[in-house]
Amino acid sequence: MEDKELVARALEAAQRAWAPYSRFRVGAAVLLEDGGVVCGNNQENRAYPLGSCAERVAVNYARATFPELRVVAIAIASPDSEVPVAPCGGCRELLLEAVRAQGAQDIRVLMADRTGDSVREAMVSELLPFAFELE
Ligand code: THU
After folding, report:
1. Architecture (CATH level 2) of domain 3-127
2. Which of 42, 59, 93, 124 to mutate to test the pocket of ligand 1 (most atoms within 8 A of CB)?
3. Coil vs helix vs strand at 48
4. Phi and psi of 35, rounded to 5°?
5. pLDDT at 135 (0 to 100)
6. CA–CA distance, 48 with 59 (Å, rounded to integer)
7. pTM, whole model, 2 decimals?
8. Are 70 and 33 in contact (CB under 8 A)?
9. By C-alpha distance, which of 133, 71, 79 is closest to 103?
10. Cβ–Cβ under 8 Å, residues 113 and 83
11. pLDDT by residue (tens digit) across 67-112?
């Protein structure tokens, strides 16, 4: 799948976000090794800390449904952002856990703005250097 298409899927998913409090809609599209795509979006709650980021919804759904399939890439985008959306610190931890769960095979992160034309790319390992380890 082309990067552009994965970003388009993230932007499309953002349209279904539930973000009445921040009014900042985010979509995430996870590309699996078999070419399948799992999407998510941010889901906020009146009790603010209960809200979930788009990446968390998409990655947790992918890993809960297709635990045997490696995550190859994730696109993150917001129709409400003029600049590429970078994952929050918590989502970087979540993404790094997915990397660990798939035998340290890194995941490409595509970060896009509202148009989907401005895209930054980094690997999860680059987004969370010097990470907390138990060993
Ligand atoms: N948000 C995401 O869904 N992903 C990010 O990478 C950054 C922030 C959400 C959380 C909250 O619902 C809204 O964007 C504003 O912070």
Report:
1. 3-Layer(aba) Sandwich (3.40)
2. 42
3. helix
4. 95, -5
5. 76
6. 21
7. 0.97
8. yes
9. 71
10. yes
11. 999 999 999 999 999 999 999 999 999 999 999 999 999 999 999 9
Q: Which of 81, 88, 113, 114 to mutate to test the pocket of ligand 1 (most atoms within 8 A of CB)?
A: 88
Rounded to the nearest angstrom, the distance between the alpha carbon of 42 and the centre of ligand 1 is 6
111 forms beta bridges with 76, 120
Alpha helices by DSSP H, 1-135: 3-14, 54-65, 89-101, 124-127
Structure tokens at 111: 């970060």
Q: What are phi and psi of 82, to 5 degrees?
A: -80, -15
Place of tokens 């889901």: 43
Tabulate helix, strand, coil % of the chain (nearest 5): 35, 25, 45
Tokens of 39: 């999407």
Could you tell me the end-to-end alpha-carbon distance of the chain, in angstroms, rounded to an integer?
36
